[in-house]
Structures are given as C-alpha cells and as structure tokens.
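name: query_chain
kind: protein
chains: 1
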Amino acid sequence: MARFSSMIATLAIGYVCAEDNNASSVQEQCLTFEEQAWDTDMAGDSVGEEWAASSDGCCALCSNREGCEGFAYLDNKCYLKTNFRGTYGKVGVITRLRKGLGSDVQGFGAAQHGEDLSGDLLEDWYAPTADVCVAGCAARTDCQGIAFIDKRCYLKGKIAGTYKHDGCLVRVKEGVFAQCPAGFDAPAYDVGLSGDLLASKTAATSDGCCSMCDEMEGCEGFAFFQQVCYLKANFSGTFTKVGVTSRIRSNLGAGCPGFEAAEQNKDLVGDMLDDWYATRPEACCAACGRRSDCQGFAFASDRCYLKGGVTGTYAHKDCLVHLKSSDRRLAGADWLV
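structure:
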C-alpha cells in the first residue's frame, strides 16, 4: 500500500512539473508580444482562427503562423491577424501585438518629442508604442504622420505643421515638410485636375510631383492620389474628388492673353458652361481660352464660372469678370451695368 501511494505521489509530482513546464513555455512565447489590451480588437487581415483555453495560448499559435502580427481573443478563439491597420474598442476582446511591430517601417522621419501635429485627424486608437502608430499610418495613403501620447495614436492628414505639446511624440512621413519648388500654386485638397494625361509616376507625397512636372515638357499641373502623380497638360478645369491633391503652375493663364481687362464687382449675363474651384482667376483664363463656346468668366469665392452666349454684365460685389476680346460685340447701352 505504501509503495502504491508512493507511485501515485510520483505521478502527481510529474504531472505538476509537466504543467509548470507548459506554463513556462507559454509565458516564454508571450514574452515576444506586447501586454494584453482589454476590450480592444485589432484591425487587419485574417491569417487563421484557432481554439485556445486562454489568450496566452494564442501567443504560440501566432508565433508559428507566417506573417502573424498579433491576435484578438474572444470566446476561446484566437483570431490571428496580419497587415495591421489599428485597434478599436470591443467589449470582451483581448488583443496582443507582436513586440517591434512598426519598428522596421521605412519612409518616416525621426521622432520629435514635445510636439503635436496640426492637420486633419483621421483616426485615434490605443497602441502600446509609437512604432505601432507608424505601422497603422503606413497602411493609409492619406496619413502623413502620427502623434502619440498616453498610449493613443492620432493619425493625421493634410499636415500644416507642428506645435508644442508636452509628453507628445510625432513622426511624419518623409517629404511631407519638403517645400515644392517655386512655380506652383498652393495645393488644393480633395480637388482633381482636368486635362490631358502626360504621365503617371509614383511619389511619397504631392511635393514630389513638382519636380516631375518641371521636367515634363508641356506639364501645367498634376493631381496626386494614392502616392501616384498624374501629370497633366491642356488644363481645362478642376473637379471634386476626395483624397486627391492637385497643384497647377503659377504662370498658368498669366496676364489673361486674349481677354479684356478685368472688371471688378461685376458678373456676366449668359449661359453657364461650367463652374469649379480655382485659387486665382488666371486659371479661369487658361480654361476659358481653350473653349470656343466660352466667351468669358466670372471669378468669386475661389470659383470659376465659365459663360457662353454673353449679353452683358450686372453688379455683383466681390466678383471679377474677364471677357474675351473677340466677344465684346455689344457696346454702350446694349451692356447692362
């Protein structure tokens, strides 16, 4: 009986040791992951779903799955993810990300401490490190940089600059603060460019398109979308397109050749042919000059109004008009004032 009891005790000790070894192995696997984030899910592409008794069991599964960058755990199931795009709140979910996620991402400048970014807020979410924010920003073409404070990422677009913010860290994509060479108007956001396509070339930011346009004969401007520069000739106007940044040459339409002198606080009586955004009236000249049906235009509140069948003018505060020299066929009392 004593011998049997001794055997049972030995087996029990062996079982406990095996459990301790397994627990130790699981803990070692999880050392390569960030701390658990409670009530947090992970945005990314699925690389598999596996059962596990606890979230710790997901560590080995993710470690052994090619491309796995982290996992979300809910109801004894590990959701293994790749192509990390951020996190979001979800009750009951536990998320863990691989350590070092985002540390090898290229194309960002050095960290700036005690600064924040002025620009459009695209997203904000939990992250254990600033590198994780960089990984999420890199996955978005409209994201130009990140601000990181109190374990939260703030993804920013259309960045205008930085300002002081104690405890905050920022990193910006390379080229965002680079100056476009002289000779181009200010960028127009969410605005496409109508014209003939000369070429399409990749660039990190819209500023990178400027030198490409400079080197391309006949290029009058460009539209930048998803890291591609669309170089254009024969400018004919603009149109609204979310996510697009466009710039035109600053000498486009200069002097308004073929048009009479500008008339202030006037508008044109005639048929509306087209209207679109423009930073200056000379852009309207360039487009109207290329249309045989366009006899003149009105420019007000950064918009061009191209007109045909013009019969006169009328008073319109803060509006400017240009009429083609060959199209002022009416004179004196025939023109409204």
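note: The chain has four domains: 33-99, 112-172, 188-248, 263-334.
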